[in-house]
Amino acid sequence: MIDANKLVDLAIRLGASDAEVYAASGKIITVETEHGELGHAEESISEGAGIRVIVDGAEGYSSSNDPFRFEDAVKAAIVCAKARPKDPALKGLPLKPQAYPGVSGIYDQRVADISLDQCVDLAAGMIRAAKEDKGTSVTAAKFSSVVSDTVIANSNGVLVEDRETVVMGYVDVIIKEDGQVSTGFEYDVARSLSLDLGSVGTRASKLARDSLGSSHVSEQTSDVLLGPFAFGDLLESTLLSSVSAENVQKGRSGLAGRVGEKIAVPELTIVDDGLLTGGLGTSKSDDEGVPSQRTEIVTDGTLTSFLYDSYTAGKEGRESTGNAVRGSYSTPPKIGARNVLFEFPRSDVIKETKKGIYVNSVIGAHTANPITGDFSVECRNAFVVENGVMVKPVKSLMLSGNVFDLLKKIDGMGKDDRLTGAIISPTVRVKEMRVTPGA
């Protein structure tokens, strides 16, 4: 593993007042389909380091994936900082904490030991399961396993190491029958090799089969059941952006100045938990070495906190919430959610719905306005629900609204939590949403 402290010391000797090294190494195995059959399998090893420095009140960043050029990256970060103007809001890097919390469920030795051949077999089984319905064709499928080791060290004494694993399986299918066409997709992701990949394939083909024979519905205001994928996508593109302290401070959030205000139904609490057992965003610390924690964003319907990294927290003279995240060592940290959870009375929300529309997933959530919360999305695999049963599939449906209005109209939440990236999302019933037929 990279000697992060050695690079930190070099940066200080070269004139940095503060220095940080984020080092990462890992193995990724990916198996993908070509023309519906197994076609590409690859195992890759990566190692790299990102160096962040502060010189005369200005920040610089550089990275490298060449161990023989890590020292050059330190020098480049120094040059970058010297070329930038002083930032009065920059309060320095995180201080060494008293201790880091313990976390569990983020590493599985079976994933670390898995071979390329085993991954190919797992992907093949997932595809076979999808094709057990003889009318199903697989349009895309992917299986991947990741094992990574990270070290964060800085000149204030921070030194934290983590080892993590992730596995993911994805299937997209199509059925053509009697002149009708329908599609379906499923995926699952976990920290351990506990995924039932056959079930992923089976669920994808079943969804496509159930969606055959779809028909239009009229424009209407209806109770809408947002499935885990649909609800997660909508909130990731709207609410999570709005609770970023950076966006709040830059005037890019519709929630600026609203802490202490009711923004959701009174029964709803929204939590970001960096300590969640087995969570995809779980680790001892965030990606700049601040200990992970549990932060209530919304408490009983009231906005209680935004998400902060050290820089945005320093602007307000407060502590970071441990929400600095990185896509890789090649980029400096930015604010991001860790594991977003919803606390609300749970029930079999579909079974309890007398009349409504169920939406499995949506297309176009990324086009939502993160400031106003307005969205307009296309629904994929939607169904009319009557007396607790999905009675018929719906063709080409559009759903529009405002996420802040949506939070005030939630009146049911299922027990079917799914990991959908940073959000652990259930099925959510929302009263009186506007739905219109698509083209």
Automatic annotation (TrEMBL):
GO terms for molecular function: metallopeptidase activity. Residues 19-78 form the Metalloprotease TldD/E N-terminal domain. It comes from the Archaea. GO terms for biological process: proteolysis. Residues 221-436 form the Metalloprotease TldD/E C-terminal domain. Coiled coil: none annotated. InterPro entries: Metalloprtase-TldD/E_C, Metalloprtase-TldD/E_cen_dom, Metalloprtase-TldD/E_N, PmbA, TldD/PmbA_N, TldD/PmbA_sf. GO terms for cellular component: cytosol. Residues 112-212 form the Metalloprotease TldD/E central domain. Gene3D superfamilies: PmbA/TldD superfamily. This is Peptidase (U62 family).
